[in-house]
Write a structure and sequence with these properties.
single chain; alpha+beta; 2 helices; 7-stranded mixed β-sheet
Length: 125
């Protein structure tokens, strides 16, 4: 899915940084080479907060509650789409944990997370 774009032509995504018991909730690809916060495209008619909590639930099985927006937004170019992306991240608290191993989500020690996450996301750990 391509997702909606803002006035600047950036694809809009939203996600959550969930820290619990000195661990952070991360998702990975099938080869466990790429680690990131749960995030995804904002759908039409959906707020950034709604998209962030929906994507976190879909990707991890965890229900979360938004605490605050994290600044600044992350911007990058999608290699797949060759389009600019604007990712808004929110600090979120854990409501219920339901990790889905099939989706490759995991609670990762904060120090380890800083080593394996995309470099442009380390600021948020």
């Amino acid at each position: 899915m391509r997702g909606i774009e803002n006035r600047d032509g950036e694809i809009i995504k939203a996600g959550c940084v969930v820290v619990h018991d000195k661990k952070v909730l991360l998702v990975t690809d099938k080869d466990q080479k790429i680690w990131s916060f749960p995030k995804g495209h904002v759908e039409a008619g959906e707020s950034l907060e709604q998209a962030a909590t929906r994507e976190t639930l879909e990707e991890t099985g965890c229900k979360v509650e938004i605490k605050k927006r994290l600044i600044p937004d992350v911007t990058y170019t999608s290699k797949e789409l060759q389009k600019p992306v604007r990712l808004t991240l929110f600090l979120a608290g854990l409501l219920t944990s339901g990790l889905d191993a099939e989706e490759k989500s995991s609670w990762v020690d904060l120090e380890r997370a800083r080593e394996i996450i995309y470099p442009n996301l380390r600021l948020y750990i």
